Amino acid sequence: MSTTPGQPAGRRAHQPDTQPDARPDAQLEDGRGKQSPAAPVIPLRRDSGEPPSPQGPSSASTAAASTAPARNGRARWARGPARPTLAEAFDPRSNALDLLRLALATTVAVVHTMLIGTGHQPQTGSTDLGSLAVDAFFVLSGFLVARSYLRLDSLRRFVWHRALRILPGFWLSLLLTAALVAPLLALLEGRPAASVFTGPDSALDYLQHNAFLQIQQFGISGLTAGSGAPDVINGSLWTLLFEACCYAIVASLGVVGILRRQRWLVLALLIALWLLTIAAAAGFNPLGSELMLRLSFVFLLGTAGHLFADQIPVRGWLAGFSLALVIVGLTFLPDYRALAGPAFAYLCLWAIVRCPWRPRMRWDLSYGMYVWHWPIAQLLFALGAATLTAVPFIALGLALTAAVATASWTLIERPALSWKDAAWVTRTPRALRPRP
Q1: What contacts 212, CB < 8 A, 6 or more positions away?
Q2: Cα–Cα distance, 1 to 13 (Å, whole number)
Q3: Which of helix, strand or coil describes residue 123?
Q4: Which of 72, 78, 304, 327 is most buried (most C-beta within 10 Å)?
Q5: Alpha helices (runs of H) in 287-429, residue ranges in sequence order
Q6: pLDDT per residue over 200-250, tens digit each?
Q7: pTM score
Q8: How far apart (Å, rounded) are the C-alpha atoms in residues 414 and 197?
Q9: How would residue 285 be classed by pLDDT, with cut points 50, 70 and 90?
């Protein structure tokens, strides 16, 4: 399975929300903000029985303890140490979400840069590594986006926050790719820079056809014909449409009250998607869209992870068993998700709370890394950097992409997020205001 547009099977690592709803907004949905009182409160379990009395132990309890130490010892041994659920283990201020999203975006960037420079990308059994990174990003995004909707408790604010996170960076990428990257590529290929603005598949067509997330034109004027991804100037943007569709699914479930009051229906939907995934692996896909089935399945697995966090145990042996299932699925099945989709999602959620390194990143570069790595790799290939061999070519591409991602975050993404609490979106409509 490929993450390239010609053989679409994988995706973006953002965001970006990120996270990335991807994609992956560091202060909005990255798991570090405060929970709203409207969000469901999951009670923590006690490690022992009743809390001690403020007056201290009574004489009766002291006598009972003195006459039955063995029984109490056996009870403590049987109960064992506290075993947290995902809800108890997840700390909004200390988790690995930022690190994981950046690592997944970087993984996709490495895979695609290798594809552009060498014509090949690494495989993990039946699935390429980029597709696995995309799946993981969608799991994390499903977790974060469900949390965002329940925290905001407003469809209007939810849609506004999602749009602020995705569209400004996306539009900047489209504009600069058409106005700057494409003319530079034309010059490097011995053509006039202005030639990309006329004729079929022009830079202007590129802007017009792709402005609303649905990528209908992948190339501009036949550029990059000699690279490992010919006539594709940015092959990573197509997944953003599917992420937006998953946002719409969560919003719909929230509006009708399923996320808060009937979360078991999310499990029913997941079971249906799992059965359809199994059928698709066997050659029968009644939905028709393999990508929508695949990405909505892993996204909603992340959503269910948040909704049922109070019932999901965090165990090392479960993570090991899940990893074994994923390896078996990758090795023996055309689509590992048919066997190990839930196991893969468990691994991602387990990593959020069990990764030993949990840096609090002030700059969320995952989205910028995702949307910019492809055109930068194409520029480097046109400059002849692929002759440096794969490792230096990839390292140079990552360094330049990180610089551009930093500029995108500083100049566009973070300023856009400052509008998340604009008055028009936070103000209560007049019809809903209480009468004096």
Answers
A1: none
A2: 16
A3: strand
A4: 304
A5: 290-307, 316-332, 337-354, 366-382, 390-408, 414-417, 423-426
A6: 999 999 999 999 999 999 999 999 999 999 999 999 999 999 999 999 999
A7: 0.81
A8: 31
A9: confident
